[in-house]
Amino acid sequence: GSYSYEFGDHGGLIVMADVTRRTSNVVFSWTEGADWYDFELDGEPFHVNNIITSDSAASTKFLIYGTRDYDNVLYHLDFSSILPRTCSGYWAPDAQSSDYETWIPSAGLISGESCLLGRITSYVRRKPHAKCFNGEKFERPVFKNNCPCTFEDYHCALGFARTLGESECRPVDVDATSRSWKQHPMIAGMVLAGANSRRDGVHFLWGLLRGCLSESPR
């Protein structure tokens, strides 16, 4: 079915309720969806309109509201007692004694590749089964490092195209190629993809070794 949902405790808590039918059942998870728990609200089932929490999604308190016949319904949900303590060890993620781990998102295009738009971004998050809350004052450590450039960071400029199975951009339209070369003389038919922040690295373009650009040409 369709559910209204909201995140709390900096993403460590998910709270949901069915919006397709009358219900008094609330479902929640504190293990990133690996395990789900539910409970029944007092009173007759009602149509859920929405679930809300603080704008920062840092709280463990929620409001769920809707309608029962012609009456408005509002419940206050407090999850602060479901876990016994506040997490510790964010300064030493991945250590056995720490409640936290390092998480690195990636585009998943290349096996083992952790770069996303030219950058490796490491987030410190609570281990999924650590029985603790982040706490409202938790400030998530984030570490960012740029990656060396590769052909995958570029798309072909106007008048250039890639042959299936190849990485290099080669001219296919003489007039368009001439205009593109005048606009971007250093990239030999390739333009760094927008919002990409990769730096350093080198690549061969038509036999020329060039340093990778740090930003999209203008």
From TrEMBL:
Q: Which residues form a coiled coil?
A: none
> In terms of domain of life, where is this protein from?
Eukaryota
Which ranges carry the Sortilin N-terminal domain? 1-50
Kindly state one GO CC term assigned in the UniProt record. Answer: Golgi apparatus
The residues the entry assigns to the signal sequence are none
Sorted alphabetically, which InterPro entries does this protein's record hold?
A: Sortilin_C (IPR031777), Sortilin_N (IPR031778), VPS10-sortilin (IPR050310)
Pfam families associated with the record: Sortilin-Vps10 (PF15902), Sortilin_C (PF15901)
Start and end residues of each Sortilin C-terminal domain: 54-174
GO biological process: what's one of them? Answer: post-Golgi vesicle-mediated transport
* Keyword terms, alphabetized: Repeat
Record-given protein name: Sorl1p
Species name for this entry? Perkinsus olseni (Perkinsus atlanticus)
This protein's encoding gene: SORL1_2
